[in-house]
């Protein structure tokens, strides 16, 4: 495994942290999923169990060690659910974060700046690839719908039977036409909007963090718990 993780140690990543995350990450990979990059938190103080971020061609994963490193909690997001990615360079290190379609936000601070830049580069490339794949899927669906409509119309014209000609006796009275039935409008069902409990909790948690009531680590850990519950 050592030879396999060497390619993820080019930007001064902690080899022990990468090895620990890589072992867990390999077990989570799906068919056709490849690891693109691994970034490791590096605080100015001693941090034996740093947070990590891993990018694959299918998703982004945030890893947070727990129980003094005996276990690792993770949250993952597929690329189609990522609205945007952000990186902010500070005096010491940088912050990398993502925002999802349901309003959730997740990030890691104290990343080496070169690693944060690499994360941003890979993430933007994957988002662009996802947009292009979505555009091609939409185009194929529109073509399929258009072709189906043309075939159905041609079939109706080709196989439409001719109306038979019925000769009525001269003295016969014309029948009184029966009026067509009055169409009944289908009832409209109004659904009560459901309150997004997860979004509300995330907003309150973010407010506590922005007001300085909780630290970045507490913010990430509590957000991880909320996202895991849902």
Report on the architecture of this protein:
It is a single chain. The protein is of the alpha+beta class and 230 residues long. It folds into 2 domains: 1-139, PH-domain like (Roll), CATH 2.30.29.30; 196-229, no CATH class. It contains 5 helices and 7 strands. It has helices spanning 2-5, 15-28, 113-158, 197-210, 216-229; strands spanning 35-40, 52-56, 59-66, 71-78, 82-89, 94-100, 105-111. The strands form 2 sheets. A 4-stranded antiparallel sheet has the order 1-2-3-4, sandwiched between helices. β5 and β6 (94-100) form a beta hairpin. The protein starts with a helix and ends with a helix. The model is unreliable at 190-194 (pLDDT under 50). InterPro entries: SHOCT, YokE-like_PH.
SSE sequence, one letter per element: HHEEEEEEEHHH
Given as residue ranges, the uncertain stretches (5+ residues, pLDDT < 50) are 190-194
Structural class by sheet pairing and helices: alpha+beta
Extended strand count: 7
CATH class of the largest domain: Mainly Beta
- The structural domain count equals 2
Number of helices: 5
CATH superfamily of the largest domain: Pleckstrin-homology domain (PH domain)/Phosphotyrosine-binding domain (PTB)
- The Cα radius of gyration reads 30 Å
Oligomeric state of the chains present here: single chain
Overall outline: elongated
